[in-house]
Design a protein that fits this description.
alpha/beta, 2-enoyl-CoA Hydratase, Chain A, domain 1, Serine Threonine Protein Phosphatase 5, Tetratricopeptide repeat, 6-stranded mixed beta sheet, 3-stranded antiparallel beta sheet, 14 helices, 12 strands
Length: 461
């Protein structure tokens, strides 16, 4: 749904064009028609991204006004529809649309613009900021039904939660068949999870200021990057604007497979401008420029890699994703197996060093664990379990180094200090054991094991 771009900060949004109209029919006088059309012509001349086309559009509707083409138009809703058809006959720009009173159209003088914005964002929240469905399908296939790209702090919070939910996926399907657009910033934000390093996705040229804005993926994300996970994007003829940009970015970067129908063909972002008498127009004030193709999808849409009817796209994607997900799973397991082989080889080598140089031995333990930790192959519980395995094998020095590493990486965990305390106790170092048990108790006063161990050792001192 479109929002008023009465505020300049929102002018960069890709508008949600196709929405259920809530327009209210209202009579319009001859004088009001003349005023509205002249205002509209001026707005097009001053703001449309292609100035020559904007001038042609303005001249066209003024000539239509003069020759009486609008004389039989009696209400604002009808005038908006007629003007939309006339403007698109010249511009061939599907973003350029005229709206009558009602819905989210801007008023000539908003009585409470902050409240209007609150209501708009409340509606976006009720729609979960575009995230209609997020789930894990069989085979570790993440699925996201994404209806739009909202931009707000709350929208980003939902996006992060969605990405964290599917972080263990072996393949990911983005369903954009009903996605009508939104913020290029949110598009960049989501795609940042699927590129290992900063990647130049798209540019937006803006007529105002004659400037070009570049969009690169973020180097870091809140969560885990899925830079080599197979990606599938579903499209339909209803996929529009920002939904098309997301699709085009994935396709031109060869980051995933597009399945479905040719998209709607709207690549010119802009905003709503009031033309007076309750009528407003969405004017594209910019255009997308892909850094690879040097063009965009305006008027032609994005052609899928596999073209099937929209209703069949999900079934087709799941069938393909199941195959790719299993390949990815095997690749990950093979790579992880090699990493763990290296880890144990290094830890065993470190064990042999303790009698010669305990400092070097511990450095080797730390660097070996750091490698697998940074690759998200292990976490706090895994490291703790490894320490106990060595403790059970009477490799106490090695176990202590492993537990110490865990306390440095997860210092807020009561459990890691408890484990280190137990290792020191097994090594006969009561003072260090008590010290670490006390640290565990500070973090978790209900740790009965730590209380009992401290009492036992203190009574035996």
């Amino acid at each position: 749904m479109c929002t008023s771009i009465k505020f300049a900060a929102l002018a960069a949004l890709f508008c949600f064009i196709f929405f259920t109209s809530r327009l209210t029919a209202q009579d319009i006088t001859k004088e009001q028609k003349e005023e509205t059309i002249n205002n509209l012509a001026k707005l097009l001349e001053d703001n449309y991204v292609f100035s020559d086309v904007g001038n042609d559009c303005a001249e066209h509707i003024k000539n239509k006004l003069k020759d009486g083409s609008f004389d039989n138009v009696s209400d604002k809703k009808e005038l908006a529809e007629v003007l939309t058809n006339e403007l698109q006959s010249i511009s061939h720009d599907k973003h350029m649309r005229v709206r009558g009173p009602g819905g989210m159209m801007p008023q000539d003088e908003p009585s409470n613009p902050i409240f209007d914005q609150y209501k708009f964002m409340k509606e976006r929240g009720e729609e979960n900021y575009g995230f209609r469905k997020v789930e894990m399908l069989d085979g570790g296939i993440g699925y996201i039904d994404l209806r739009g790209f909202a931009q707000s702090d709350k929208a980003y919070e939902v996006a992060v939660l969605a990405m964290k939910f599917i972080k263990n996926s072996n393949a990911v399907i983005f369903d954009l068949r009903e996605n009508h657009g939104g913020s290029p910033e949110m598009i960049k934000f989501i795609l940042s999870y699927f590129f290992d390093k900063p990647t130049h996705l798209n540019d937006l040229y803006w007529r105002n200021g004659d400037r070009t804005e570049e969009f690169w993926t973020n180097e870091k994300v809140d969560g885990v990057k899925m830079s080599d996970v197979p990606v599938f994007v579903l499209t339909s003829k209803e996929t529009f604007s920002g939904g098309e940009e997301f699709t085009y970015n994935v396709q031109t970067q060869k980051r995933g497979l597009i399945i479905g129908e040719v998209t709607g063909g709207g690549a010119n972002p802009g905003g709503m401008f009031p033309a007076g008498n309750g009528i407003a127009v969405f004017i594209p004030t910019g255009r997308a420029i892909n850094p690879i193709t040097k063009t965009n999808w305006e008027g032609v849409g994005v052609k899928p890699d596999i073209e099937v009817p929209a209703d069949d796209a999900l079934e087709k994607a799941i069938a393909l994703a199941e195959v790719e997900a299993e390949k990815y799973r095997q690749k990950i397991l093979e790579a992880a197996g090699k990493e763990f082989e290296n880890l144990f080889a290094n830890l065993n080598a470190a064990e042999e060093l303790y009698n010669k140089d305990s400092g070097e031995a511990e450095k080797k333990v730390y660097s070996s664990l750091e490698t697998v930790l940074n690759k998200n192959l292990i976490g706090e519980p895994d490291i703790n379990m490894l320490g106990y395995e060595f403790l059970g094998e009477q490799k106490v020095a090695l176990a202590i180094s492993v537990f110490k590493f865990n306390t440095e990486k997860f210092p807020e965990s009561s459990n890691v200090w408890d484990s280190l305390g137990e290792a020191y106790m097994n090594n006969g170092d009561k003072e260090l054991a008590i010290s670490n048990y006390k640290k565990s108790l500070e973090l978790n006063p209900d740790n009965e094991n730590a209380k009992q161990m401290i009492e036992k050792m203190q009574s035996g001192l």
